[in-house]
């Protein structure tokens, strides 16, 4: 049996262009910047009275969500529809896999329906990578979040939001606060921030919510908000993923809020023009005070809007990379 | 590489022809829109010369190309900018070169996604052989034929120079 391809290589075609979007690992600054630039131009489409462009007209995008999601699934669906694709949303809990059909058989059936792209969310790390290895060359896979591994489109929409408000990445200090241990978003954010050249990435969390390898990812660890938020330009609050906590990793939500919740008082440790982000859904009064979440420094709703543009960019780039790869293969 | 044609002088003549054309059609308040990149430079000149009060519009037709599935997305795509309502307006659409007609088709598809214009007047500096679609400019600076190994390119924007290069 052939060795599985490194996901960072698997997602690029022979010309080095995206054909799947599985992880930010192995993608260089130029590729990330191209995604951001393309997304920037898609933002204008959302402001039109007819919010559609014909790039994916005639293509079929299947949202394969093996894990619950509202915001991510909705923005992927809107993104695909704004690119004029036909969209199929599969509720996996009531689909064939729950009747005993294997994942491979389900995928083969979807491929037989001439699908062009699968947007995959799965609780198992590496599931989108596995699917990308098994599908035909006529299908592109977009990772919409896998286990604790990666959530690359969320990280890219965060990067777009930071660039919109700060202009550039060089020189920025960015703090990521909260449940780093269970967060696929944090891993992708740290990768993206370092690739794009920020001055420093900090993580602020209790030891019980930090992965052991966090510093090797390129982040400096702080255990108090006062130290960690000192003179930062960007604060990214994370959701407490209670559904993934197997043991008593927290004494109580109240104590977490006291120590790590972002309040108006703690926000003063950061630069006066620091922006506040949160990937959602927000637990108000646990991760963040309402006055901060709805305050002038919050860019949380910008993140949601940017999510559609980033997903349009990634989908159109992957589809064009898929077509280029097929053309190259058939002309050989 | 050969620099040819006095672009400024051609533009002056095109503006005169365009003014006469608009007068014939009884168009008094057109919107001027350029197709990136060369068309925007020319549109900016025409916009100033016609004394249009509203800002000049810019179209990037990358999202509307009919060859996206073959050549992919242009990595330098920039958002279109139409800082006025186009619904019911008379539009002067400007491009530097019209050849196959596919760029103009894409531009018109995009324009109709912003609203239904009353009319579109097509202006081009160079009209090349090789039309693949039934699209004809209303105002032309110069008709040209190129050899198979030649291509024409407008350089700018400070000084507009038209160059013919060998492929």
Automatic annotation (TrEMBL), chain A:
Carbamoyl phosphate binds at residues 71-72, 121, 151, 154, 280-281. The keyword Chloroplast does not apply. Residues 170-317 form the Aspartate/ornithine carbamoyltransferase Asp/Orn-binding domain. InterPro entries: Asp/Orn_carbamoyltranf_P-bd, Asp/Orn_carbamoylTrfase, Asp/Orn_carbamoylTrfase_sf, Asp_carbamoyltransf, Asp_carbamoyltransf_Asp/Orn-bd. GO terms for biological process: 'de novo' pyrimidine nucleobase biosynthetic process; 'de novo' UMP biosynthetic process; amino acid metabolic process. GO terms for molecular function: amino acid binding; aspartate carbamoyltransferase activity. It comes from the Bacteria. Residues 19-164 form the Aspartate/ornithine carbamoyltransferase carbamoyl-P binding domain. It is an enzyme of class 2 (transferase). Pfam families: OTCace (PF00185), OTCace_N (PF02729). Keywords: Pyrimidine biosynthesis, Transferase. L-aspartate binds at residues 99, 184, 239. GO terms for cellular component: cytosol. It catalyses: carbamoyl phosphate + L-aspartate = N-carbamoyl-L-aspartate + phosphate + H(+). HAMAP family: Asp_carb_tr. Heterododecamer (2C3:3R2) of six catalytic PyrB chains organized as two trimers (C3), and six regulatory PyrI chains organized as three dimers (R2). Belongs to the aspartate/ornithine carbamoyltransferase superfamily. ATCase family. PANTHER family: ASPARTATE CARBAMOYLTRANSFERASE (PTHR45753:SF6), ORNITHINE CARBAMOYLTRANSFERASE, MITOCHONDRIAL (PTHR45753). This is Aspartate carbamoyltransferase. It comes from Alkalimarinus sediminis.
UniProtKB/TrEMBL annotation, chain B:
The keyword Transmembrane does not apply. Signal peptide: none annotated. Keywords: Glycosyltransferase, Transferase. Residues 18-145 form the Phosphoribosyltransferase domain. It is an enzyme of class 2 (transferase). InterPro entries: PRTase-like (IPR029057), PRTase_dom (IPR000836), PyrR_bifunctional (IPR050137). GO terms for molecular function: uracil phosphoribosyltransferase activity. The keyword Electron transport does not apply. It comes from the Bacteria. Its EC number is 2.4.2.9. It holds the Pfam family Pribosyltran. Gene3D superfamilies: 3.40.50.2020. This is Bifunctional pyr operon transcriptional regulator/uracil phosphoribosyltransferase PyrR.
């Amino acid at each position: 049996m052939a060795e599985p391809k490194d996901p960072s290589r698997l997602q690029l075609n022979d010309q080095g262009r995206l054909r799947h979007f599985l992880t930010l690992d192995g993608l260089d600054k130029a590729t990330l910047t191209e995604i951001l630039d393309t997304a920037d131009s898609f933002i204008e489409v959302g402001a039109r009275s007819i919010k559609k462009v014909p790039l994916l007209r005639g293509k079929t995008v299947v949202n394969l969500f093996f894990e619950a999601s509202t915001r991510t699934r909705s923005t992927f669906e809107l993104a695909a529809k704004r690119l004029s694709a036909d969209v199929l949303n599969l509720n996996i809990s009531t689909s064939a896999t729950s009747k005993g059909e294997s994942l491979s058989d389900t995928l083969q059936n979807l491929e037989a329906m001439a699908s062009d792209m699968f947007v995959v969310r799965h609780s198992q790390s590496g599931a989108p990578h596995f699917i990308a290895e098994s599908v035909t060359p006529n299908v592109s896979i977009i990772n919409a979040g896998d286990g604790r591994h990666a959530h690359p489109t969320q990280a890219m929409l965060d990067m777009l939001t930071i660039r919109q408000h700060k202009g550039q990445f060089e020189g920025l200090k960015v703090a990521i606060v909260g449940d780093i241990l269970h967060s696929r978003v944090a891993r992708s954010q740290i990768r993206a921030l370092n690739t794009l050249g920020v001055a420093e990435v900090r993580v602020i969390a209790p030891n019980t919510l930090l992965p052991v390898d966090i510093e090797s990812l390129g982040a400096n660890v702080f255990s108090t908000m006062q130290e960690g938020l000192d003179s930062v330009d960007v604060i990214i609050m994370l959701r407490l993923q209670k559904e993934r906590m197997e043991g008593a990793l927290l004494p109580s939500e109240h104590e977490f809020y006291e120590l790590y919740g972002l309040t108006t008082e703690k926000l003063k440790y950061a630069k006066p023009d620091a922006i506040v982000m949160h990937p959602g859904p927000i637990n108000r009064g646990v991760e963040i005070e309402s006055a901060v979440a709805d305050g002038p420094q919050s860019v949380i709703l910008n993140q949601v809007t940017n999510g559609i543009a980033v997903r349009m960019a990634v989908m159109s780039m992957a589809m064009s990379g898929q077509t280029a790869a097929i053309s190259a293969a058939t002309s050989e | 590489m050969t620099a040819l044609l006095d672009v400024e002088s051609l533009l002056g003549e095109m503006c005169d022809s365009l003014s006469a054309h608009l007068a014939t059609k009884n168009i008094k308040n057109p919107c001027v829109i350029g197709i990136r990149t060369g068309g925007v430079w020319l549109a900016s000149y025409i916009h100033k010369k016609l004394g249009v009060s509203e800002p000049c519009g810019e179209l990037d037709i990358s999202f509307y190309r009919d060859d996206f599935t073959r050549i992919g997305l242009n990595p330098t795509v920039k958002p279109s900018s139409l800082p006025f309502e186009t619904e019911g307006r008379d539009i002067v659409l400007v491009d530097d070169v019209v050849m196959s007609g596919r760029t103009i088709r894409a531009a018109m598809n995009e324009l109709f996604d912003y609203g239904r214009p009353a009319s579109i007047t097509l202006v081009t500096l160079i009209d090349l052989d090789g039309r693949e679609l039934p699209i004809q400019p209303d105002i032309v600076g110069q008709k040209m034929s190129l050899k198979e190994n030649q291509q024409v390119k407008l350089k700018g924007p400070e000084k507009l120079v038209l160059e013919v290069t060998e492929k």
